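Suppose you are handed only two things: the residues of a chain and a line of SMILES describing nicotinamide-adenine-dinucleotide. What would the bound structure be? This form records exactly that question and the answer produced for it, so the two can be stored side by side and reused later without any lookup.

QUESTION INPUTS
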Amino acid sequence: MLQLNLLTKLAAQLSGEIVSRNRKKFDFKGNNMTEDRTAIVTGGGQGIGRTIILDLASKGVNVVAADINLDGVNQVSSEAEGLGVRAMALQVDISDAESVQAMVNAVSDEFDRVDYLVNNAGITRDSLLVRMDDEAWQAVIDVNLTGAYLCSKAVVRLMMKKRFGRIVNISSVVAVMGNAGQTNYAASKAGMIGFTKSLAREVAPRNITVNVVAPGFIQTAMTDALGEKAREDLVALIPSQRLGTPEDVAASVGFLLSDEASYITGQVLHVNGGMYM
Ligand SMILES: NC(=O)c1ccc[n+]([C@@H]2O[C@H](COP(=O)([O-])OP(=O)(O)OC[C@H]3O[C@@H](n4cnc5c(N)ncnc54)[C@H](O)[C@@H]3O)[C@@H](O)[C@H]2O)c1
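ANSWER OUTPUT
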């Protein structure tokens, strides 16, 4: 793990790769997001993070895809560039403070601003508590909760200087319902909610909002791997009678980042088809 941290640190410091320098002005009218704004999305290399990045890029927002998996962010940055915005791909370990600071320095050097942060990167290491090893507990807390803390702390200083910012933390329905086999994951995602509400109170006077999007079960590689029966059992728990899509989550994130949401802070937006009300 130490070796991996050093490698990713080095990669973020030395080869923050700028995929696009396309400065074309984008005539964006849809969600009233001012052109030239810049978003960092962690865990942007695949799944929900990838969809959030492409949604923001389609609205004219410059995007930084940050992920421990460099191949994924290179790919999504190229796709974002194709939508006419500037895009940057960075290999970052969000659980490592130096790696996170190197990411924010690289973004600040290139764009001179961070308007939006989406703390999306997350991992699971499921096990019943009696069988859980300490490493599985700590790894999930380090990435999901400490990662959101480190990224928020590193960008909030820039946002305070500009007197503008939006942070959205991706939690989970499990944070409020609990789930057997996920004490570590649920604790990390519930921690994000308390973190969000406290930070929202600290930074609201500076025109910075901090909110949570809490997805239910979303159709991703993880749920694709479930068997037919397991998927049917899952869907039976959801009043909307379907799994969510990454687009459902991205739309909620886009709303909370938009100018229309400027008076919404410290809130949890549940995106779960009615599974938890
Ligand atoms: N898929 C669901 O059903 C679901 C439901 C509720 C909440 N969520 C949450 O939504 C977020 C995205 O989920 P997903 O399904 O797209 O997951 P995913 O596993 O497809 O993507 C997560 C991304 O995070 C990256 N990542 C992992 N550790 C990292 C680290 N230390 N530093 C930087 N990047 C790291 C991974 O490389 C990956 O690209 C997660 O926080 C997850 O907990 C997902």
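WHAT STANDS OUT: The chain has a mean pLDDT of 90. The domain at 2-271 is CATH 3.40.50.720 (Rossmann fold).
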